[in-house]
Amino acid sequence: MGDREMKTIEQDILRVLVSEEELHQKVQELGGQIAADYEDKDPLFVGVLRGSFIFFADLMRCCPIRSELDFLAASSYHSGTSSSGVIKIAYDLSGDIAGRHIILVEDILDSGNTLYHLRDHLMDRGAANVKLCVLLDKPSRRVKPIEPDYVGFSVPDEFVVGYGLDYADRYRNLPYIGVLKPEIYEK
Ligand code: IMP
Ligand code: MG
């Protein structure tokens, strides 16, 4: 009894791409940069649910300036590994954003469809400006002409999970960024 090994999500990971230590160091750097750039702008941080939730929470704690935060949710994925290009806003910001300096925080910039659409949406609602802060960037997959203003790591064209990023809504609770074993999504 008790000799059976626990089944964990780690067994589905091919390799670690960004370790916990690397994540924490980078998030501190980004928080410091944003704090310096927005010191007296009272920015509104907008987290894109659900993938950004861990990055967002860590980033906020590394950015000790006067600011507010809110969330919105977008969906473009039909549980595969690439974007459909059709973005729906499933949950919108609660308050008025006219004249606000917005930092849109997302887990990963891939095709760019999601952030391109969300940035337009926020500008249409009257934001003074919208800057993009992404933990990961996959430039090789870009379809829309869009670049991040703040970026943690540039990553190769592999499907990654963890630290908020999911595959079919799983693996968000992995504490680091890992490459998912292809057999998981090729099943
Ligand atoms: P885009 O609209 O193609 O830029 O895709 C953005 C969304 O796709 C992100 O918010 C992620 O949810 C998802 N995504 C893209 N690449 C990956 C990945 O490698 N792992 C997990 N999610 C991803
Ligand atoms: Mg997502």
What does this structure look like?
The chain has 187 residues and is of the alpha/beta class. The chain has a domain at 21-76 and 97-155: Rossmann fold, CATH 3.40.50. The chain is built from 4 helices and 9 strands. The chain has helices at 20-38, 53-61, 113-124, 182-186; strands spanning 13-18, 44-49, 68-75, 88-91, 101-109, 129-137, 150-154, 160-161, 177-180. The chain has a 6-stranded mixed beta sheet with strand order 4-3-2-5-6-7. It has a 3-stranded antiparallel beta sheet with strand order 1-9-8. It is globular and about 60 Å long. Bound molecules: inosinic acid and magnesium ion.
SSE blueprint and pairings:
Elements: E1 13-18, H1 20-38, E2 44-49, H2 53-61, E3 68-75, E4 88-91, E5 101-109, H3 113-124, E6 129-137, E7 150-154, E8 160-161, E9 177-180, H4 182-186
Helix pairs in contact: 1-2
How far apart, in Å, are the first and last alpha carbons? 32 Å
Number of helices: 4
Averaged pLDDT: 94
Alpha-beta content class: alpha/beta
Question: Within the CATH hierarchy, at the fold level, what is the topology of the domain at 21-76 and 97-155?
Answer: Rossmann fold
Poorly predicted segments: none
Largest sheet: 6 strands, mixed
The coarse overall form would be globular
Strand order across the largest sheet: 4-3-2-5-6-7
Compounds present?
Answer: inosinic acid, magnesium ion
What would a concise description of this structure say?
The chain has 187 residues and is of the alpha/beta class. It is built from four helices and nine strands, in the order βαβαβββαββββα. Helix 3 links the parallel strand 5 and strand 6.
